[in-house]
UniProtKB/TrEMBL annotation:
The keyword Ribosomal protein does not apply. This is Putative transposase. Residues 394-407 have a biased composition (Basic residues). GO terms for biological process: DNA recombination; transposition.
Length: 429
């Protein structure tokens, strides 16, 4: 199966400068192609990947800054944009900012990437137009390379190889019949239905205060100045520590869950909606004033939810489940924290505090998060045992490999027919 291997690069100053330039050109192509798609949509027309790739090839002959970077990286940028627009819609795809988006580009052809091991700690890879780049090989590749993605995180560059490791998902789990319900919270990051907690503080109070100080320093600097670059680098270094701790916790927790249980049940939590900002309430009695609406406390809750990395834990568990044969499902989270897992009685008064659950009907007392995790497990077992309508054991719906390509060609032809002269080509950023 396909898996990722990420390593830290050791680029020379010239290679780092060229990598920044490649990332900037890919960002420019993304933004220009997105604006082109939106302009076509405003005119009730459509343009797809094939037409934009053709215009990009024409623009490379005119602009030298487009021709000097690897062409496959630019084509992959257009492919990624096309997939994003197909999945989310043209108007919901975001722009790539120079300040907030880290530079990243992908080499899609693994056959053109050569990898050599230098010694026990170092290896090197030959990337198109970048040449031989050294990276710290902290773990073996373990398979054939399909593609490589180069990205910058703070001041360090990394390369991520997509590898075909040849592993297969086992037919049976090592612990058949085992199951666990997972309740994700703020006080305890992960609570299992068997009463075990997985929790970690990713940023200590002193680190939070230091990050706030660095943010204030960054806000007082002038845009485009050298002081601002240094302040942004210090802030990015401080935030990267917390980000690495969060990723490490998610990976370790996912390993424990996937290797220990055959069935894992999560709540289907809409994190994006849960962390949305509160709309201000205008005061009808005073023009330009707003009534208090709890936005300050809601913003604090949003930061706490995003700090715990709920979605990352679920993604890491699904990735690890491929190697253990674990089934990961999600259930509706409604009333799981207000239902007694003994009598299945729903009463909001039973949840007396964050950690205390005392059923008003039968008097059952338990940790509130453990009670919720047991309810999640009960709902997950019922969902897992329910037969799917119209599905047959062992049957799989055949995939249509021709329809998407034919649809792309037809829409590309339509976009070419309705193209306007002023939109031909990729303009200079």
């Amino acid at each position: 199966m396909l898996t990722g291997r990420k390593y830290r690069l050791d680029l020379t100053p010239d290679q780092a400068e060229f990598a920044e330039r490649i990332g900037g050109v890919c960002r420019s192509v993304w933004n220009t192609a997105l604006e082109q798609r939106r302009t076509y949509r405003r005119r009730d027309a459509w343009i797809g990947y094939h037409e934009q790739a053709r215009q990009l090839a024409e623009a490379k002959q005119e602009f030298a800054w487009l021709a000097e970077v690897p062409g496959h990286c630019l084509q992959q940028t257009l492919i990624d944009l096309d997939q994003a627009c197909s999945r989310h819609g043209t108007w919901k795809v975001r722009w790539k900012s120079k300040a907030r988006t880290r530079p990243s580009f992908r080499f899609p052809e693994g056959a053109k990437i050569a990898i050599e091991r230098l010694n026990r700690r170092w290896a090197r890879a030959k990337l198109p137009k970048l040449g031989w780049v050294r990276f710290r090989i902290t773990r073996p590749l373990g398979g054939a390379v399909r593609n490589a993605t180069v990205s910058r995180d703070g001041t360090h560059w990394h390369v991520s190889f997509l590898v075909e490791d040849g592993a297969l998902t086992p037919q049976r789990h090592d612990h058949p019949g085992s199951a666990a319900g997972i309740d994700r919270g703020v006080a305890k990051v992960v609570t299992r239905s068997d009463g075990i907690f997985h929790h970690q503080v990713f940023a200590r109070e002193r680190e939070v205060e230091h990050a706030a100080t660095l943010q204030r320093r960054l806000a007082r600097t002038q845009k485009g100045s050298t002081r601002r670059e240094h302040a942004a680098a210090k802030l990015a270094k401080a935030l990267a520590k917390v980000r690495r701790r969060r990723a490490d916790f998610a990976a370790k927790t996912a390993h424990t869950l996937a290797t220990g249980f055959e069935l894992i049940v999560f709540e289907a939590l809409p994190t994006k909606n849960m962390t949305a900002a509160v709309a201000p309430k205008p005061d009808p009695g005073q023009q330009g004033a707003f009534l208090p609406n709890g936005a300050a406390s809601k913003s604090g809750l949003n930061r706490s939810i995003l700090d715990k990395g709920w979605h990352r834990i679920e993604l890491a568990t699904r990735g690890k489940a491929r190697y253990t044969g674990t089934c990961v499902i999600t259930v509706n989270p409604a009333y799981t924290s207000q239902t007694c897992n003994v009598r299945t009685v729903v009463d909001r008064k039973s949840r007396q505090s964050q950690a205390v659950f005392r059923c008003t009907s039968c008097g059952h007392t338990e940790h509130a998060d453990v009670n919720a995790a047991k309810n999640i497990l009960t709902a997950g077992r019922a969902e897992h045992a329910r037969p799917r309508p119209g599905a047959r054991a062992g049957a799989r719906k055949p995939r249509n490999h021709v329809g998407r390509k034919a649809n792309r060609q037809a829409t590309a032809a339509q976009g070419h027919a309705t193209a306007s002269p002023e939109l031909a080509g990729i303009p200079r950023p």
